[in-house]
Amino acid sequence: MSIDHSIDERPTIAAPDDDPYLWLEDIEGDRALGYVEAQNQRTLAAFGDAGFERDRDALAAIFDRPDNIPFVSRRGGLLYNLWKDAAHPRGLWRRATLAEFRKPQPQWDDLLDLDKLSADEGEDWALNWVTSLPPAHDRAIVSLSRGGSDAVVLREFDLTTKRFVIDGFTLPEAKGSLDWLDADTLLLTSAFGEGMATPSGYARTVRRWRRGQPIEAAEVIFAAESSQSIWVRVSVDRSVTPARVWFSEGLDFFNHHLWLGDAAGARTKLDLPTDSWTTPYGDWMAIKLRQPWTIGETTHAADVVLGIRLSAFLEGRRDFVRLFEPGPRRALQSLYWAGSRLVLAILDELRTQFEVWSPSPQGWSSSRLPGLPEIATVDVWPLDTDEAEGNGDLLAQIQDPLTPLSLQLIEGFAAPTVLKQAPRTFTAEGFVVTRHEAISVDGVSIPYTQTGPSDPTGDAPVHMHAYGGFGHTVRPGYNSALGKLWLERGGTIVEANIRGGGEFGTAWHDAGRYAGKRLAHDDFAAVAADLVRRGVTRPQRIAAEGGSNGGILITNMLVRYPERFGALFCTIPLIDMRRYTKLLAGASWIAEYGDPDKAEDWGWLQTYSAYHMAKPGQAYPPILIATTRRDDRVHPGHARKMTAKLQAMGYDAWLYEPAAGGHGYGKDNRERAAFITLGYRFLAQHVGLTMD
Question: Residue 3 pLDDT more than 60?
């Protein structure tokens, strides 16, 4: 293909700031909204046919099924749930006893109907999070999000009368969080107010806010020390009496300072590596290292977990007990306290293990959580919202790509019992789940999980997915949408564990960070090539999807490895690596990617900024880029601008941008179903998967 040099290919690597599409960053601007509306009409006219409507409705019906699992958390002895279905698309906040929840059809006590509230107030409300006051939990701060955004409106709610509190705590829309100090005092972290936001748009202060006090009069009791910090956080720790208060300042995405204090403010900065995770409970604390830590003549390796008495640590002692030792493919995924015992969630060769450590004056003792399968995707977490109230009860979620998830209760660290079983939503007969390894460009083995027909034909329509960032681990699970709209129609599903994730610890993450992000993309391309090498499929039959950080991945497949894919679906994406730090929460991700304002960092960022790398005359596969207007985390301008540039160069590029959804695929089940269905039908049409 010859290149038409009259085509405007700006911005380019040579002129990265010559951007003709900056006007599309004006989220609510008339010109930008006109562009988006025209693009939405074009996309829906091409792919929103009767088949789309049928599949969307079928998927929405699956999401709305009355026998789906209602996930719960316990507060003050009662289980709380936010339920969404066709009758309650925005959600119904409700509660029940554990005894009632065990029944096949529990009777719920309804607290707040989000659909009625939205209709009464003329707002596009979604429930984001709730913080209630222990031990009675009769008052709560409810966070209401417009259209699913991260920014929320805060309002006090009385759980006894089931009404918002007249003249109670209220705060206009902003990003933030809080904890109750007592019935009349909140510790608030919020970006609301002059000078209260960091460059990333998150809270830079903790304010002590008393009942009846104007927010402007609330005393600042803690503030970020650095003007470049990304957030501050606060939590009230009731595992001791009197309660203590923990303050933290996020220096970047992976580093923070931690202080111990009280209602008056921070008192003691803990002498800890800034990139460690610290989990205190009572007079004990566990520390997970990210990098090696040398104390005197002792060096503790990266990813080790250390235990010690908090009082001893504050006195200067460093006689740690090693509670976890990593291996080349053995990595900690999370740690938390439950009933005064520490639970470690571990992946060993991608198989799940759970260790329980019990501290005592005689030392630490360990055991395993019994009755959980290793060959499955298993998640375990505390049933109680407040660790100090917990009796050790845990919830477990167990699933695999062909087995719908079950919700199980672990009482007293005994074997789990089934509470709820999710329904089967697609036909699994004839499919198998297998694990494979591809060899990347530098010889490293990249694991991936394949779900598809037991007898491959060599021509399978494949859906690939990966993430590869922020130490986030990807594990295969039961996906109703892919099962119904892809597997049942003869397709194959692949989940890749590329570098940048947390599957194998810090080294695996760091290998796909900064300049290594490009290597993570090579990993994904290597998996696509391995599928062809193994005789599973052909390149033209491979579709790929990725969102958020995965948007960088998908657009790099477009510009770097176009010959390996038949179609691409890029969602809520980060793409423009030149300006990402200037858009919404972008500055908070410098520790993952680098700072484009520094010449050294731009040296590697430009190698995976697909917005700048895209050029005319290439054999790019078709791509659908989808975002949401209310995404206040990753700016919708990334998707808009990339689409505009690709279309200007004559490529088969499409944009879809619904008004609501936040950093997700929709605020309710029908919106999610529409977003997903549009993407999957786009992919299916271009890789030859039979849709009807």
Answer: no
DSSP at 77: T
Exposed / middle / buried, residue 178 (Cβ in 10 Å: 0-12, 13-18, 19+) = buried
In the DSSP assignment, the letter for residue 165 is: P
Rounded Cα–Cα distance for residues 252 and 587 (Å): 9
Q: How far is it, in rounded angstroms, from Cα 343 to Cα 357? A: 6
State yes or no: pLDDT of 253 exceeds 50.
yes
Beta-carbon contacts of 37 under 8 Å, excluding residues fewer than 6 positions away, are none
**Amino acid, single-letter form, for residue 270:** L
Cα 135 to Cα 301: distance, rounded to the nearest angstrom: 40
- What are the tokens at 34? 């006109």
Active site residues: 548, 663
Nearest to 353 by CA among 323, 383, 375: 375
Q: How many CA atoms lie within 13 A of 77 on its CB side?
A: 3
| Beta partners for residue 546, in sequence order | 570
Please report how many Cα atoms fall inside a 13 Å half-sphere around the Cα of residue 266, on the Cβ side.
22
From residue 255, alpha-carbon distances to 125, 198, 229, 408, 680 in Å are: 34, 15, 10, 35, 38
Looking at the DSSP bridge assignments, the partners of residue 435 are 449
Determine the pLDDT at residue 4: 55
Half-sphere exposure of 520 (CA within 13 A, CB side): 35
176 C-beta neighbours (distance < 10 Å), count: 25
Both structure tokens of 467: 């993430």
- Give φ, ψ of 451 to 5 degrees: -125, 120
Within 10 A of 271 (CB to CB), how many other CB atoms are there? 11
CA distance 489 to 461: 9
CB 629 within 8 A of CB 40: no
- Bridge-partner residues for 94, per DSSP? 81, 110
Q: Are strands 492-496 and 542-547 parallel, antiparallel or unpaired?
A: unpaired
User: Is the model's pLDDT at 475 over the cut of 60?
Assistant: yes
Q: What count of Cα atoms within 13 Å lies in the side-chain half-sphere of residue 353? A: 17
Helical pair 50-63 and 669-687, crossing angle rounded to 10 deg: 130
d(CA 222, CA 247): 8
Q: How far is Cα 340 from Cα 343, in angstroms, rounded to an integer?
A: 10
389 secondary structure, DSSP code:
G
What is d(CA 657, CA 628) in angstroms, rounded to the nearest whole number?
5
CA distances from 237 to 250, 274, 442, 557, 589 (A): 19, 21, 47, 46, 29
pLDDT tens-digit readout, 111-161: 999 999 999 999 999 999 999 999 999 999 999 999 999 999 999 999 999
DSSP codes joined into one string, 607-652: TS-HHHH--TT--PPPEEEE--TT-SSS-THHHHHHHHHHHHTT--
Cβ atoms within 10 A of the Cβ of 78, count?
A: 17
Residue type, 95: R
Structure tokens at 504: 């194998």
> What are the structure tokens assigned to 508, written together?
């695996």
Determine how β-strand 417-421 pairs with β-strand 403-410. antiparallel
Please measure the distance between the N-terminal and C-terminal CA atoms of the chain and give it in whole angstroms.
34
**Residue type for position 414:** A
Sheet containing 109-113, strands listed edge to edge, beginning at the edge strand earlier in sequence: 73-75, 78-83, 92-96, 109-113
Torsion, Cα 283 337 206 268, to 10 degrees, reads: 30
Q: Of 205, 199, 243, nearest to 222 (Cα)? A: 205
Q: Report the alpha-carbon distance of residue 193 to residue 202 in Å, rounded.
A: 12
Confidence bin at 5 (pLDDT 50/70/90): low
